[in-house]
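Figure S4 source data
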Amino acid sequence: MTVEADASVVRVPVPTETTGPGGRTNAYLVDGAAGTVLVDPGARTPALEAAVGDRTVTDVAVTHAHPDHVGGVAAYATETDATVWARRGREARFEAATGHTPDRTFVEGTTVGGLSVLDLPGHAPDHVAFATGRGLLSGDLAFASGS
């Protein structure tokens, strides 16, 4: 597994309409030598707009295609001209959820920016985690309260 060890990870809480604990999910910006990867842009919010605006986003990827993780994909893809990634074999699910056709696909072991993809189906059929030098971005597989 290839992981960029010195990449920084910035978590940006995003309010959501889902039934998850706390009424929010998280988007992440992973800054590394290969550029910035935006993970799980659930919606456009002022905080996420500010965080994205300070960076050159090169890639957009999601842990899974549930609405609270993909609501901002199309807008940020257009705004940043980033490469948009989806789970191979789940492209139609991704496009239906995001309204955006993926540019590239990944499988376990693929490197997206400086992140390595791990298959973690269960919560959703397309669910993955992204390994960073600081840990895993695992979407809804673990909650601060309830897991």
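Figure S5 source data
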Amino acid sequence: MIKWATRKPRPLWRQPVALAALAWLIIAALAACLAPTLSPVGPLEAHTDQSLRPPSAAAPLGTDLLGRDVLARLLWGGRWTLGLSVIGLIVSVGLGLPVGLAAGALGNPLDAFLMRLVDALLAFPALLMAMAILAILGRGVAPVAISVGLSAAPAYARIARSAVLEVRVRPYVDAARALGGSEWHIMIRHILPNATAPLIAFAATQLGWILLNSAALNFLGLGVKLGVPEWGAMLADGRGYLRNGPWVSTFPGLALTFTVLAANLLGDGLQEALRR
């Protein structure tokens, strides 16, 4: 008889890559929260006589066209970028989770209707959908967070439905149903707690997607006001000076890249740690 080798889940603390990703996210969040303390100068403090100065002891990451300190803007920009992304993730989970739970737990015909609607929404490129939602809501910080959350909700609903379908056929769910439990009671008491592992892992991965798309919308000038330090907006500010002042775009680009990568790696690590 052939015995197939099965790999046991590895706890998160035994995954160096996932731990490094988690550490980066914690450091980025702390740096954003402590920006007033860590920032050498104000993010909007301009000195036109110090325009496009390269990194030095006075300005460790250089200055932009208006002489504003790039390090200060990078620290303060983390507040906008990470804050918008967290709000977008909350919107995505808050909308996608109930839809996925209802579709997976209650079955046809509600399942068929909700999933065809989700499939129709997934057919649109997510960034294009976010821009269409922005066209309805109007430009601004809050509309950007809402639009990226709404555009990410269909994917989360699909993952939530898959997790529910896997759990609902297990014996303890059948036992609860045989004892007369209502579908909503079974969903909240038995299905949802046992379907959280893939939902948590996907939420971490989705955070990276939302980070990237919220920065893209701000790069296009659809979010924060002109001059406000945000990583996507800082990339847009420095795109015209890549030859004379590459540091203006390089450092926010690196911060965004490493943060998106860390979110994806953490999602992979959580998926491995929570795998059953």
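Confidence is low (pLDDT under 50) at residues 1-5. The first helix runs from residue 16 to 33.
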